[in-house]
Amino acid sequence: xxxxxxHPSRVICKSGTSVKIECRSLDFQATTMFWYRQFxxxxxxxxxxxxxxxxxxxxxxxxxxxxxxxxxxxxxxxxTVTSAHPEDSSFYICSARDPVAGxxxxxxxxxxxxxxxx
Amino acid sequence: xxxxxxxxxxxxxxxxxxQINCTYQTSGFNGLFWYQQHAGEAPTFLSYNVLxxxxxxxxxxxxLSRSKGYSYLLLKELQMKDSASYLCAVRxxxxxxxxxxxxxxxxxx
Lengths: 118, 109
Hints:
- The complex is a heterodimer.
- Chain A is built from no helices and eleven strands.
- Chain A is mostly beta strands.
- Chain B is an all-beta fold.
- Chain B is about 0% helix and about 55% strand.
- In chain B, β7 and β8 (about 70-75) form a beta hairpin.
- Chain B is globular.
- Chain B starts with a strand and ends with a strand.
């Protein structure tokens, strides 16, 4: 089945630094990838839709200058949290759908990245 | 607005059966998904319903009634490893996924 790989799984950084999270589709090409954020005991919150070769589409309330998304190839999307603050600490998860599998195919998720900003 | 409701937490006994309900109000409907999420991990796909009725997959079954805006996930022969959160998600008319907050299922021996 379709596999999505996300790296790193955990990262601890200091306030003011930037952190890059990578999301790769391993056995399919993803023109679109989705970045989610999840707070403890809460549901998934869609942050942005990453589009290969064009600008990402951000959800309302998500700062595009803070959460930089790059989708330079059909198998790689990156999320960079810039000038991180403690309130950015969260679980970030990427996902993608195999377009060959059709519109009804499910989203496949990366294993998530636990970000802690000290 | 769009809304998905599911119970926050449920408890069941190992070997028993549990039903997790999900009701939704969305602008349009293009399918309903159930995902399992263990603590600290990403969600994994369980089932998909787009037509009314029951979809069975081993110990797990999912039911959909579009007229009632209702679905349930049925887990049989519960095992300790089934302790997880179960997320209901509906795809609306724009093919956007609307997520429920998840139901935390606790299995007791």
